[in-house]
Predict the 3D structure of the following.
Amino acid sequence: MKIGIMGGTFDPIHLGHLATAEAVRELFALDEILFIPAARPPHKLDKHVTDERHRLAMTTLATRSNKFFRVSDMELKRKGLSYTFDTMNELHKIFGTATELFFIIGADSLADLSKWHAARELVAKCHFIATTRQGVEADFSAVENFFGAAAKEHIHRVTTPGLEISSTDIREKIKLGRSIKYLVPEAVEDYILTERLYL
C-alpha cells in the first residue's frame, strides 16, 4: 500500500488542505490519505491551539465526502509533543514496513526539514512530498546537501493547485465578523458558527 499523510493542527482545516491532498493522491497513485490532527506541534508551543475535540470534529466533517480520505486521532491520543518521527514509527507498526508512507508538507516546511526531530532517520523511513504553487520558486539545495542521496530518493517536489487560503486568515476573518464561505467546506463553516469558535 501507498499511504499519504496530511499532518497539521487543522485549526481550522480548509479547502487548500483538501485540494492539495487530492492532487497529491492522484499524482502519486496513493491508496488513501490519512489526515492526522496534531496534539502539540513542537513549533507551535508558544501559540494558542483550539481544543483538540473541535479540530478532530472539523477534520472529520471536511473529509467525509472523499472515499480516499480518512482521519486518525493517533497523535491526540498519544499526547505530549507531536513528533512526525514517532507517528511514522506507529504507522509502520499498524500497516507494516512494506507500506510506503508519503508525508505531505508545504515547500516552506521543507526548508526546515533538517531541524526536525531525528530528521535523517525520518527521511530514510518515509517519503516527503513538498508542495509548491504554480510560479513559486524555492531553493532546496541546502536540504538536498544535508540529506544527501536520501533526498533524491525520498524527497519529491510537486506543484499543486494554488489556493491562497490560510487557517490564520480564516480565524482573523471570523474574529472580524467576515465571511469564510468557500474557504472551508460548508459542514466546517456550520460547525464553527454553531460552536462559536475563533470569536
Remarks:
- The first helix runs from residue 15 to 27.
- Residues 6 and 17 are 8 Å apart (CA to CA).
